[in-house]
Amino acid sequence: MTRHSVSPLTVDSLVMHADIAASIVGNKNTVFSGITQDSRNVEPGDILCCIRGESFDGHQFIPEAVKRGAVAVLVDHYDDSIESSVVQIVVPDVRPVLGRVASAAFRHPASSLKMVGITGTNGKTTTASILGSLLTTHGGSVHVMGTLTGARTTPESIDLHAQLRSCVDAGVDHVVMEVSSHALEHHRVDGIVFDVAVFTNLGHDHLDFHGTMENYFAAKRKLFISERARVAVVNTDDSYGRRLQTEAVVPTSSYSLSNVSDVAVTASSVSFTWKSLAVHLPIGGSFAVMNALAAITAARELGVPDGRIVSGCASVQTVPGRFESVPNDVDIDVVVDFAHTPEALQGLLVSAREIARAGLIVVFGCGGDRDHAKRPLMGGIASRGADIVIVTSDNPRSEDPERIVAEVMSGVVVNHALVSSIVNREKAIESAILGAKRGDMVVIAGKGHETTQEINGVMTPSSDVAIAAKTLRVREEKTK
User: Range of 80's domain?
Assistant: First the structure.
């Protein structure tokens, strides 16, 4: 939630171009040159957008913003205590209009870009990366935005439209972005009409926020309306995807594993035949096939020819923390993956089992201050899917990590796998790698690309890939 400069614009023009119902109290011809929703970042000539959050109310910080030189405020009620020189833009609720306000403030940058939005529980990041490669191979200048590029999967409205304006100014012509359910519920992507909207799947996640799967699906479905998307690309192997296709109000293309044949999967690559095209990607794991299908189908909707689709798939780079192999000389397979939902862990272990040469060992945990219901579910999935399970810590945040581990362990199915717990994540990873036999596969799940561990509000360096690589070097030294 930073502050961004904009080309000078009058308050009246902002309201008109945002196409919102608002009352302007004060001089409507007042010109502003910056926009933010954080009063601490206000500079002279700015507009402050006041959001009511769960733990704060932006309206409380208007006096500070005025002292810093704010010339206008976007508010949900008129306040006669505010200096008359400061223009008040009064709307019923700020959050639902902020996306359109931000779009107008930055001169509607999305309208100058080919926009692709990808939503779903699992697979968004890999699908976005593959599609970015396909579009680049086709000659596009592409910016991929999502989990790997920012603190939030989808930035707040002002930050998002500022990024899109930067893309336009830099000559980018395509933006492929992950769209989270939180972003849709909070209207962050309002002001954008996506040329293609992609649905990957829906699984058990974020129920601490949405409450029920139906509410979660309702949030995702908001991307697939005519105000937000021109074309939909939907996974019809997923039950919620089939519902989207049935209820579609925009033109829809579907994709399914039934469309492919000759599938071959290794720890570092997949290949398959799709509509007579021989496709190869240097990304491992069977779920890469489904992610590739999503990207390929979207690419076709954007006019990418078959030849460029094939070459684009072949040139895809490894996606950090997505079935990422950690190289070694001790003859064990080590894979780091972001899987942190029941469905993702299930898919990961099924894929790993298909290519494991010997035993399958999994190290995983569940994050704190998040959905409690999925913890025992994931314990059961791990104990049924692997030979050895080590339950550990994964960003406990403000919760007791031992309690989280105990909740995961409560779902373990007995007499399936050898299950233990080591709360210290680094030690858990070390135990798995040092204890693995030649030919075994060690899967480290949950944190993927992340390079920190959050404990009681403190972020400490912690990279699963780095820990695994260091431990593998230790094991290599021992075998010399």
Answer: 4-94
